[in-house]
Specification:
single chain, 2 helices
C-alpha cells in the first residue's frame, strides 16, 4: 500500500510540474506577442494612437536666373522665340504687279516706230540750204507711231542736238505699213555764224517712246554722202511730220 501511494504522489507531482511549465510557456508567449505588437505592426487597444509627424513644408522655388546680357553689337533677345522658317499660317507677300507688256507686231496692234520695223534714209536738201531730210518708212506688218523727234548723233558726239519747238505737230505721226514720216535737220548756220564747224561722215538715228524722254528699240544708221556733211553748233532737228512739206518748212 505504501508503494502505491508513493507512486501516485510522484505522478501527481509530475503532472503538476508539467502543468506549471505549460502555463509558464503560455504566459511567456503572450508577453512576447504583446511586446511584438507594441513595437511592430499593431498597438494594443489601450495604447494611444501614434501621432503622425508634421508634413514637411514644400521648398520654395528658386527664382529663374536672369538671361545673360547680349554681347556688344548683338540685338537684345526678345520674349518671342526666333522663327527658323515661315509659319504655315503666314500669308505670302503680295507680288508687285507685272509691267504691262509692250505691243508687238504679232499682236496685230500698232507699235512704236524704231529701227527693227522701219528703214531710214538721209538726203541733203538744196532748199532750204544746209538742211538734211530724214525719211522713215514703215517696213512692218502693223502700223507704228513716230513719237517726238529723231535723236540724231553725228560721228562720236556725246549728246543729241536740241529740237525746234515751233515744229511740233498737232498729233502723233502714225505710219501704216509702207507709209513714210519725215523730219528735217538744220546742219549749220547759213550766214556762217555757227562755231566749231566740222565735217562728219557717219550718222545714227534713234527713236523716242511715248514719254518722249528715252530711246526705244533699235537705232538706224542711214548712209551719208561720201564727202560727209558740214555741221556746226547751230545743229538742230525738227519734229517728225506726217508729210514732207511740213518737214521742210518747219
Amino acid at each position: 500500500m505504501l508503494g502505491i501511494r508513493t507512486a501516485r504522489t510522484s505522478r501527481t507531482r509530475l503532472l503538476a510540474a508539467v502543468a506549471t511549465a505549460a502555463l509558464a510557456a503560455l504566459t511567456l508567449t503572450a508577453c512576447n506577442d504583446d511586446a511584438g505588437d507594441a513595437g511592430g505592426k499593431g498597438t494594443s487597444a489601450n495604447s494611444p494612437a501614434p501621432t503622425a509627424p508634421p508634413a514637411a513644408s514644400a521648398p520654395a522655388l528658386a527664382a529663374p536666373a536672369p538671361a545673360p546680357a547680349p554681347a556688344t553689337g548683338a540685338p537684345a533677345a526678345t520674349g518671342a522665340p526666333a522663327q527658323t522658317g515661315s509659319p504655315a499660317s503666314a500669308k505670302p507677300s503680295a507680288k508687285a504687279p507685272a509691267a504691262p507688256k509692250p505691243p508687238s507686231p504679232a499682236d496685230g496692234k500698232a507699235v512704236t516706230c524704231e529701227g527693227s520695223v522701219t528703214k531710214t534714209v538721209a538726203a541733203p536738201l538744196t532748199r532750204p540750204v544746209n538742211h538734211l531730210l530724214l525719211t522713215v518708212t514703215n517696213t512692218g506688218s502693223v502700223p507704228c507711231y513716230l513719237y517726238g523727234y529723231p535723236a540724231v548723233r553725228f560721228g562720236e558726239a556725246q549728246s543729241v542736238p536740241p529740237v525746234i519747238e515751233d515744229s511740233k505737230p498737232q498729233a502723233v505721226v502714225t505710219l501704216k505699213p509702207g507709209e513714210s514720216g519725215y523730219a528735217s535737220v538744220n546742219l549749220s548756220a547759213t550766214d556762217g555764224s555757227g562755231g566749231h564747224g566740222h565735217t562728219e561722215t557717219s550718222l545714227a538715228v534713234y527713236f523716242h517712246g511715248p514719254s518722249g524722254n528715252e530711246s526705244v528699240g533699235a537705232g538706224s544708221n542711214p548712209s551719208l554722202p561720201a564727202k560727209g556733211l558740214y555741221i556746226d553748233d547751230s545743229l538742230k532737228v525738227g519734229y517728225w511730220q506726217q508729210s514732207m512739206d511740213d518737214a521742210v518748212t518747219s
